[in-house]
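Task: sequence design from structure.
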């Protein structure tokens, strides 16, 4: 009988994804860690793959059909039998007060999952994300850095499938 080495959990992980299909597949694999009350912040320049990763997450959770970036409406919601997911895109936000006026605060709660693209546009308004996902264009693909900022985020990171490694 061999003894297994212990799993070492860090507060961050890195992945390289060679193309948009791999980014989506990574999101699908990561959908297993999603649970109510989770907030994920996605950072990266235009075209870095934020929406592709979200699309994979949503399809992995059972959302069918097209998943588009909510750049113009700011929010797309997905009501699944076991979970409500809110996908925000704050690219067009000029000041965080705009979000208060929109009534979004009540959507960030213990029963929903919030996926936030361009969180830096609303940092003073948002609470700290459980997981921060940063995407960077690198050669033909994308480099992803995911870090945990809360105890719940650390639990999710520990369960994160290593599909994207």
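Answer:
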């Amino acid at each position: 009988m061999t003894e297994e080495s212990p799993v070492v959990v860090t507060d961050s992980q890195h992945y390289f994804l060679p193309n948009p299909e791999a980014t989506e597949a990574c999101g699908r694999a990561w959908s297993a860690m999603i649970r109510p009350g989770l907030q994920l912040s996605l950072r990266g320049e235009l075209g870095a793959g934020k929406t592709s990763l979200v699309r994979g997450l949503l399809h992995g959770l059972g959302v069918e059909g097209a998943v588009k970036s909510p750049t113009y409406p700011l929010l797309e919601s997905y009501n699944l039998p076991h979970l409500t997911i809110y996908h925000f895109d704050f690219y067009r936000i000029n000041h965080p007060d705009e979000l208060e006026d929109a009534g979004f605060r009540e959507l960030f709660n213990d029963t929903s999952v919030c996926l936030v693209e361009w969180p830096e546009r609303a940092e003073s308004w948002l609470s700290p994300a459980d997981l921060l996902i940063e995407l960077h264009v690198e050669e033909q693909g994308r480099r992803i850095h995911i870090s945990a900022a809360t105890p719940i985020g650390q639990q999710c990171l520990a369960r994160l499938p290593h599909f994207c490694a």
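The beta strands are 12-17, 39-43, 75-80, 83-89, 112-117, 131-138, 141-148.
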